[in-house]
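Batch manifest, entry 17 of 40.
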Amino acid sequence: MNRKEWIKKAGLSGAALAATPFTIIASDKKKRTLNRALRIAHITDPHLHEGGDSEAWTRTCLRTIHSMEDRPDVIFNGGDTINDALRQPEESVTEQWSIWNRIREEEISIPMVSCIGNHDVWGLPEVSGDPRYAKNWAVRQLGLSNRYYDFEQNGWHFIVLDSTHRQDDGSWYIARLDEEQFSWLEAKLNEIPSNRPVFIFSHIPIMCAASFFDGDNEETGNWVIPGQWVHIDARRIVELFYRHKNVKVCISGHIHLLDKVVYNDVTYYCNGAVSGNWWKGNYHQTQPGFAVINLYENGTFDREYLAYGWQ
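Output type: structure tokens
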């Protein structure tokens, strides 16, 4: 059953969408007696655009988060907030961001942390003189202090990364950290006290098992994972994390698939997508939805993934 068929069968339209239930389809949550430090709702890849259902369903997602009995303390917006800016004229990009701004003003009252996705970047060469060119427009629209940044809250240290960069041949894009950013990350991890847990937030996964299945990556007879799907500099980042045992968890989106990888005692969560298969139902075996992550004072954490009620 596709989305439109499900809506028709359920008799849902307009305001009724706001009451659509979400179902927990994946959880590593355990009964805990620990003190919780922070509860995070992670939305990613809404791909907002003119027409279609992206605005209505994103509103439904956000209304669900705000109405949860155990309401999250903060929303992490994982990028690809708009459908695509790179090859679009100014008028289209302006309209896409206006949809987001309208939703943010009308639906979001919880504090929000954002990172930049590859589709949020305006990259038409002929407008390179425009002050909004490349990531500048996204930084402004998302209200960021910089394209990468960090902050502390409730005993945890949060690091927000900028995953997407031009390839050496000038084409868009490759998943990695530029040298400036990597040096900053290395220095930042050296500064953070070793007893303070660290949370890493990026659009593109640093490590991700689901990247094997995001495309026909085995068609050559060997597994070939594109450098756009997962960080091409993952080895370097993993080695850096290995020297800092307080790095606990990394979350991402981008792949639109749901998985969990644990390597060197660091947990990597790839948390599906609000848009699922780009607003066409499930993407492979992952339903559209969002994640809720609980962080605890002792540096532990857990995750649940809540999916829309259609397939």
